[in-house]
Amino acid sequence: MAATIRDVARLAGVSPSTVSRAISLPGMVNATTRARVTAAVEQLGYEPNRAARGLITGRTGTIGLVVPDLANPFFASITKGVQARARQHDVAVFVADTDEDPAAEAGLVRALSKQVDGIVLCSPRATDDELTAIAQDTTVVLVNRTAEGILGITYDNEDGMRQAVAHLVALGHRRIAWVGGPATSWSTQHRGLGLRNAVEELRARLVPVGNFAPTYEGGMAAADQVLATRATAVVAYNDLVAIGLLARLHARGISVPGDLSVVGVDDITMSRMARPALTTVRLPKQEAGRIAVELLLAMLDDPESSVGTQGTLHGELIVRDSTGPAPYNRKVP
Amino acid sequence: MAATIRDVARLAGVSPSTVSRAISLPGMVNATTRARVTAAVEQLGYEPNRAARGLITGRTGTIGLVVPDLANPFFASITKGVQARARQHDVAVFVADTDEDPAAEAGLVRALSKQVDGIVLCSPRATDDELTAIAQDTTVVLVNRTAEGILGITYDNEDGMRQAVAHLVALGHRRIAWVGGPATSWSTQHRGLGLRNAVEELRARLVPVGNFAPTYEGGMAAADQVLATRATAVVAYNDLVAIGLLARLHARGISVPGDLSVVGVDDITMSRMARPALTTVRLPKQEAGRIAVELLLAMLDDPESSVGTQGTLHGELIVRDSTGPAPYNRKVP
DNA sequence: GTCGAGTCTGCAATCGGTTGCAGGTCGTGT
DNA sequence: ACACGACCTGCAACCGATTGCAGACTCGAC
């Protein structure tokens, strides 16, 4: 059906090898024959068959992306970034959704690894050991977490949390609640750490209220416990949780930010549509996806380079309407 | 590096052809040799190289998915459905995001079509002619729209709109505004049509307020025009638009559903988190993705069958808090 | 005139599977 | 004992590209 390299060769009056070289090593062939070849390519609308090329070169020109949940806007944005940058490099992206099932993940990665040159992996829950096992026989770039000896791109959670705390302290808050995500999640650990450092530095108190699902429901579940802490502000694991908090607080008749200020993390689309619009630490999600692709492709080009081994992106506090001055009557010295 | 069919053959003491058949045509090989082969496969962790197989069979075992915007929760859900069902069939999915640029689309599809067996295409804006041109040389399944002679899966918009109108009429609404999406969009046209039929049948009035971007901003922009119609209820093109309406109405001090009832379409995750929680026509999005894959694979297996040529899915009205009885003082005879 | 260097170009092997065809073995019927 | 079919298995060609190697040709220098 489609034109093969032989068709092009015949039309151009050269051998297939010459066509191949004219395309991938233009310097090696005479300018006039190269012109004949490109004309023939043009005329037939020839595109090299990737499977055939991959067979001999061992490279498929394809990368895999594994995410916990495509419907989660955070991962959707990362996917978008990965996809856009990969296309610029003429690399196709296989997308796989593990449906939040860390157990399925390893199998999926293994299956995928046979078909791709490398994998971009968003795996907040997997253990370091699982990840190093995976990275053994596949080139992997981690997004939003680190693991010993594996390439990755992460956010500077410590700095992001410092920005949030500084904002709250400036508003007069001294007692700040923290709604963590899953205890095993890399982000939960680092955000908690950053928060502890920041409150210490800025002379405030941090009141952790435990670990919750990183979802709207998780936020709803956490809200009453947050109120019980008598904190005047709360930092949520992510925006989904913060929006859940907002909903339950509204139902309880608590005014945000009048009685309680709420800060999220991520800045998903939904956040500016929340009521009140959510103050949050914006994480450059598409950028993370783009950089992950760059790291992966660089690693594939030159496995020795261990390029940078690790990228870090900074968050940016976006102040909206869910944070305000601490209420006098609840302030705690 | 990885085991080849020859390694397996050597270990099992048979020829590569026998290994190949033991895997893909088990009935053709003797049970005992088949056992030896599968044991060897197991031991070596052998997986057939897809590129090599694709070269000879002409099938890549891969499908493409083209969507306007992965960050749009509607398309994210469809992607999720496609991806899940494809995996069940051991088919990989290339995902491409056109970034809402219909012009880029044709090129993308063409590039993709060389690498996949078929394509699932979400293309609300493309013209019928463009689509038929694309379907000329690639197997395509359309999602959420139809085009002459092309396989597709759509929603029964007429029925969905009838449900919404019936609900509103039962609440006493007689004058219903309609905020349309992009004029060229297939869904806008069919929803508008369904709405006109429904109001006629149910003895209400429909007041179209024009075409807006299918976004939160689109809804914000439409809100004041909706109020000017003196309608007591409004149906929005989709949930994003409805949520935009909600935001602007709140800013204007309009009570929903006290003064005005709002209905969306899609039921994206965000909708139940809106304030008030949004009444909407739920479209089974993942289901659409799954069915699209089934249609595509069936078509690829037997191109003659023209299987069904068209699937239709029904929406379901989800009543939440954004709809209520029509206010007496605004009711119009 | 010969030689050497430099520059293309073609031959043929190769990647890892699949499949048409031929051949071998075995059992059964006559 | 022979023929025949059924059932398996192996040989070898093939899919469409890439690439090491060698041959051809040009040009300049000695």
* Helix content percent band of chain A: 40-55%
Any idea what the shape of chain A is? elongated
In the CATH hierarchy, what is the architecture of the largest domain in chain A at level 2? 3-Layer(aba) Sandwich
Q: In terms of per-residue confidence, which ranges of chain A show pLDDT below 50 for 5 or more consecutive residues?
A: none
Judged by helices, strands and strand pairing, the structural class of chain A is: alpha/beta
- The helix-strand sequence of chain A is HHHHEHEHEHEEHEHEHEHEEHEE
Question: What is the CATH class name of the largest domain in chain A?
Answer: Alpha Beta
Per DSSP, the total helix count of chain A is: 12
Distance between the termini of chain A: 78 Å
The fraction of residues assigned to DSSP E strands of chain A is 15-25%
CATH fold descriptor of the largest domain in chain A: Rossmann fold
Average pLDDT across residues of chain A?
A: 93
**Alpha-carbon Rg of chain A, integer:** 25 Å
Q: What strand line-up does the widest sheet of chain A have? A: 2-1-3-4-5-11
Main beta sheet strand tally, sense and closure of chain A: 6 strands, parallel
CATH superfamily of the largest domain in chain A: Response regulator
List keywords for this structure.
homodimer, 333 residues, alpha/beta, 434 Repressor (Amino-terminal Domain), Rossmann fold, 6-stranded parallel sheet, 6-stranded mixed sheet, 12 helices, 18% strand, DNA-binding
Concise summary:
With 333 residues, the first copy, chain A, is of the alpha/beta class. Chain A folds into three domains: 5-48, lambda repressor-like DNA-binding domains (434 Repressor (Amino-terminal Domain)), CATH 1.10.260.40; 62-154 and 285-313, Response regulator (Rossmann fold); 157-283 and 317-330, Rossmann fold (3-Layer(aba) Sandwich).
